[in-house]
Amino acid sequence: MKRLAVLIALMASPSAAQVVTLKTGEHGDFTRLVLNLPKPEVWRLGRTEEGYEIEIGDGTSKFDLSDVYRLITTDRLRSIWVDPQSGLLQLGIGCKCHAIPFEYGPRSLVIDIREGVAPAESSFENPLNGDTALTALVEAAPTRPKTRPEGGDATNSGARYDWIAGHLPREAAPEGEEPAANASAPQTLEAEVDLGSFRALLTDQIGMGATEGVIEMRVPEAKPSQLENAQDPDQARVALASLPGLSIDDRDRTEGMTATGANCPAEEVLDLKSWAQSDQAATELTMAKGLLLAEFDEPQADRITEAARVHLYFGFGAEARNLLSAISSTYQIDPFLVAISYLVDDGPSPENPFAGMQSCQSNAALWALLTTPETEPLDGLNGAAVARSAMELPRHIKSILAPRIVARLLREGDRSNAEVVQNALERAVATDDPVIHLLEAEVALTEHRPADAETHLDELSEGEATLEALFKRVDARFQQGLPVDQADVLAIEAFAFDQRTGDQEDAFKKALTHAYALTGAFENAFGEAQDDKVLSADVWETLAKMGQDSDVLQFAVGLREEVRDTFTDEVRVTLARRLLELGLPNAATALLADRPSPVELMAEVNLANGDGRAALRAMSATLDEVAPDLLASAYKTLGQYETSAEILRNAGQDAEAARLERWQGTWATEGPDDDKLWLELASLVSGVGGDAALPPLRAAAADVERSAKTREDIRALLQSVPLSP
Fold it and tell me: Which domain holds residue 22?
């Protein structure tokens, strides 16, 4: 329905209603012209001396002739133009042919130029002005280049080689003079061409080509054996390669080759834009079905292939494959057409017949880009050829393929050509078309601007693009590490229940995995990811950063070694730190074992396990860079309070250093008031109990009195100065 709506919109587009457009095609023994009229009109066709002329309506119609010779030669339709005085369309016929017109619907006029003499009753052989019928058309004699005037200079003869077209320019016979008949043509090359003069002319034209930069001249290696046996140059066969001292190097000889050295398909083989004569879907598809009718109902490969191409032009890939299946048992189906049929259905192609063709100069580079999986590299990608071919696609096909083309070009780092394709799509569709917002979101996601992507996706809350917008929204939230609305998760699950098949499977799997992880449903996320290493890594990353403590305890404790080995360093360190904070240093040690890890984290884990020596070994290479608190803690664990206190005092933490010194039993003789009080307290408790001169009972009583007094003094001291922790 989506493609049908696009086609209907295109057929109703006002941009196509300005002029009469002409499409052409070769059909064996006749050439067909299709005139697409902006509205039903009265038309007339009549003979002229050169061929035929056509009158549409009141004769004021405009004609678009830009595509006339895209698919046909000048063998039958020698020329076509609009008479500036009458405004009628003129057809110059260059063969012994006749024209037969017929209407194909109210707005399509079809004119077939067929071989042979017109039927005697044909009214189209009469001129439009009512004069008597003209004589039958005859085949036009071939024109020849003017020969150089006798005695003239070859360098000034005026005949100049066209290095682009590949031939000397043709010149028509003088006005009023009939071309020479074939019977009077010279029978031999020597009779027609003065070889010496021709060689001079050819050498001069080669020099012009070299001056224009089209060819490159070089001096070849001498071959004495050939020079010694050479005959008189005037009697030699003229060939560029045999000109003495000259050879030509074609700079573009590798343009038709792939990155692996294979030949690239010709441009016309994969030229989708030429596979239909007009954008009138109903007319073209009806004509395509007419091609299937053959004698004895036997399928003809060429007709079925042509019909399949018409279906591909309008985006009906599955239908094209069904047509091709009719000849699969007898003929080799074109693998290019099969691959393209999947692409126009906006899906991946199961086979890639375009492998390695991304470097071609033709439209093969475009199809290679689309058929190559994202996990495979596109070495030598010809981005300019891709962009040029994408711009020439029909609008409805462009709206389907352009987002994928832009995204892949951006992933390959070709920003400039991606912008060319993006701008071409924006010109081809309406500004409020959902495909524009989806494309903008895709570009933002590829360039890691997820917030900008969400801004464009906010415009797509409903409609046919809802599902794809949901996929991209989840991707944007995942890039930002932000939770997903539960309503979006439910919407994706609902779509999955109905549409999760075929080429949509991977998209649903990725979206649901990320959505479950971002909403904290990690069990569902792991179940969705299954054996997909990339998606599993995404779930672990989300768990490490966003998971609750209970999730970390459930999934990150007691992991198998093969699971731990799949973690990235970032995930491994994050999970180890969280397990350490949860009081599970042994579980953290398992994550950090046998892998390079941050020094301070390893030291903290060892200290949590009570192993000060292991902590010092972990910090030994970077002692000057380790935090003083961590280093002091390692020495404190080993009972070296004085060393620990010294580290803290050097770091300016005097109070903590003094506390560790008291643990060591070191008392300051000068210091804060609390140190003096502690010294006084130490003097009270350091006395020796008992007096040997007194009887035992009296000595014991004295000790009791002294003890009671000491307790009172300690109580008073503690009340006056709070005890440091």
Answer: 4-125
Greatest CA separation found in the chain?
167
- Sheet with strand 51-56: strands edge to edge: 43-47, 51-56, 89-93, 77-82
- CA 475, chain centre distance (Å): 17
Indicate whether 117 belongs to any domain. Answer: yes
Q: Tell which of 125, 152, 184 closes a domain.
A: 125
Query: CA-to-CA distance for 594 and 601, rounded, in angstroms?
Result: 14
Higher pLDDT, 539 or 672: 539
The span from the CA of 203 to the CA of 215, in Å, is 13
In a domain, 699, yes or no: yes
DSSP state of 160: -
pLDDT band, residue 248 (cuts 50/70/90): very low
Tally of domains in the chain: 2
Q: Give the three-state DSSP class for 111.
A: strand
List, in order, residues 6 or more apart from 208 with CB less than 8 Å away: 160, 161
Q: Locate 432 and state its tokens.
A: 């409020």
Q: What is the mean pLDDT of residues 229-255?
A: 41
Which candidate, 459, 452, 340, 455, places its Cα nearest to that of 394? Answer: 340
Q: Is residue 593 part of a domain?
A: no
pLDDT reading at 724 higher than 80 = no
Cα dihedral across residues 479, 480, 483, 487: positive or negative: negative
The half-sphere exposure of 634 on its side-chain side, counting CA atoms within 13 A, is 22
Report whether pLDDT(358) > 70: yes
517: which 2 tokens? Answer: 């992880």
44: domain CATH number? Answer: 2.60.40.3500
Out of 93, 125, 157, pick the residue that ends a domain: 125
Q: Residues 36-57, buried b or exposed e (16+ Cβ, 10 A)?
A: bbbeebebebbbbebbbbbbbe
Burial (CB count <10 Å: 0-12, 13-18, 19+), residue 561: exposed
Pairing of strands 20-27, 63-64: parallel
C-alpha to C-alpha distance for 413 and 379, rounded to whole angstroms: 12
Q: Quick one: average pLDDT of 243-269?
A: 55
For the ranges 378-387, 543-552, 579-588, 672-681, which has the lowest average pLDDT?
Answer: 672-681
Q: How many CB atoms lie within 10 A of CB 384?
A: 14
> Any idea of the CA torsion for 624, 625, 629, 632, to the nearest 10 degrees?
-30
pLDDT tens-digit series, residues 63-112: 888 888 888 888 899 899 898 888 899 999 989 899 999 887 778 888 99
In a domain, 118, yes or no: yes
| Contact (CB, 8 A) for 403 and 369 | no
Unique residue bearing structure tokens 């047509």: 323
Mean pLDDT, residues 468-483: 88
How many helices (H) does the chain have, and how many strands (E)? Answer: 30, 11
Judge whether residue 320 has pLDDT over 60.
Answer: yes
Query: Would you state the structure tokens that stand for residue 85, as one six-digit string?
Result: 């005085």
Residue 381 has pLDDT above 50, yes or no: yes
Residue 110 and residue 34 in contact, taking contact as beta carbons nearer than 8 Å: yes
CB 168 within 8 A of CB 146: no
**Helix, strand, or coil (residue 266):** coil
Whether the pLDDT of residue 14 is over 50: the answer is no
pTM: 0.47
Tell me if residue 620 falls in helix, strand or coil.
helix
CA distance 453 to 444: 5
Is the per-residue pLDDT at 596 higher than 80? no
List alpha helices for 519-653, DSSP H: 522-529, 533-546, 549-556, 561-564, 569-581, 585-592, 599-608, 612-619, 628-637, 641-650
Cβ(541)–Cβ(568) below 8 Å: yes
